[in-house]
Amino acid sequence: MPSRVADLGAFDLLISVAETGSIGQAARRHGISQPAVSARLRALEATLGVTLLERSPRGARLTPAGSLVVDWARPAIDAAHALDAGLAALRVQKESRLSVTASLTVAEYLLPGWLAAFRAQHPATSVRLTSHNSADTAADVRSGAADVGFVEGPDTPPGLDALTVAHDQLVLVVGTGHPWARRRAVDPARLASIPLVSREQGSGTRTYLEQQLAAAGHGPLTAPILELSSTTAIKNAVISGIGPAVLSSLAVTTELAAGTLVAVPIRQLDLRRALRAIWPAHQRLDGPARDLVRTAAHHASQPSAIGWRRPPATTGS
C-alpha cells in the first residue's frame, strides 16, 4: 500500500472531524482521547505535506485541501468498512459449520460422545461427519474437504499436524467355536501366518498391525481370507466362524462381555496405539475445530471402559 494512505484510521478520523466540526466530538465517536486524535491528524498532515484543518477555540474546520482529501478518502473508508463486515460474516459462517472426518473406529465408538459434549458448548454449530479409513481421512483434511480429522494410524500422515487425543488397543478375537478360543495365547509368527478377516489396505488398524508385526520380526501378514470395509461386518464374519480378526478394543467390548467373541492374547506384541486429531500442517487450529479436539482430549482423560478383560482360560496351551 502507498505510504501516504497506509493509515486509513487517520483518514476515518478526519472524516469524523468534517462531519462533527470538532476534534473532541470525533474523539468521542471513535472512543479515544482528544489528544490521541489530534496527534494522529497532525501525523497525517506531516505525511501528506499539507494542512488539512484550521483549528480554533470554536472547533476545527477543513481547509480546501482537507475537503479534497475527505472527498477522496470516503470511498476508501467505505470500502474498508465493507471489507471488515464481510470478513466478520465469513468468521460467523465458519464458526456456524464444522466439517469432521474420522477413521471408522473413532467415528463409530468415540465421536458420538465427543460431539454430544461439543454441542453443549456450540449449540448453534452444525456438524457434518464423514468416515473412511485413515488414509482417506488424511486426504480429506489435506484437500480442505474437512476442517479437522481423527485417525488411528501408527504415524502422523504427511502434510498434517497431529495431537494424540486418546488411546485404544488392538485385540485378536475369534468366534466361540474357533480352535483358538481356548488358547492361552498366540505367537506373533503364528498370527502373521494365518489369513485373517481384515479391513482394506489404508485402514489404520491393518496398517498398525502390519507395522508392529514387522517391528517384532514377523510378517508380512498373510493375505486376508476376507476383506471388509465395515467393522460390524468383520465382527459378524468372525462370530460366524470364517476366521480370526484383529480389531480395536473399543469395537468389541459388547461382544466380549456377551461371550459371542473371545479375545486371544498375543505373546510379546504391544498393540496399544494412539488416536490422533489431524489438521493441515503449519495452520493454526482454532474456532470449533479447536474446541472439538479439546473436548476429545478431555473425554479421553476420564475413566472409561475402553479395555477388555478375558476370562481365565480353562484349557489349551
TrEMBL record:
<feature type="region of interest" description="Disordered">
    <location>
        <begin position="296"/>
        <end position="317"/>
    </location>
</feature>
<dbReference type="InterPro" id="IPR000847">
    <property type="entry name" value="LysR_HTH_N"/>
</dbReference>
<feature type="domain" description="HTH lysR-type">
    <location>
        <begin position="7"/>
        <end position="63"/>
    </location>
</feature>
<comment type="similarity">
    <text>Belongs to the LysR transcriptional regulatory family.</text>
</comment>
<keyword id="KW-0805">Transcription regulation</keyword>
<keyword id="KW-0804">Transcription</keyword>
<protein>
    <submittedName>
        <fullName>LysR family transcriptional regulator</fullName>
    </submittedName>
</protein>
<keyword id="KW-0238">DNA-binding</keyword>
<dbReference type="Pfam" id="PF03466">
    <property type="entry name" value="LysR_substrate"/>
</dbReference>
<dbReference type="InterPro" id="IPR036388">
    <property type="entry name" value="WH-like_DNA-bd_sf"/>
</dbReference>
<dbReference type="Pfam" id="PF00126">
    <property type="entry name" value="HTH_1"/>
</dbReference>
<dbReference type="InterPro" id="IPR005119">
    <property type="entry name" value="LysR_subst-bd"/>
</dbReference>
<dbReference type="InterPro" id="IPR036390">
    <property type="entry name" value="WH_DNA-bd_sf"/>
</dbReference>
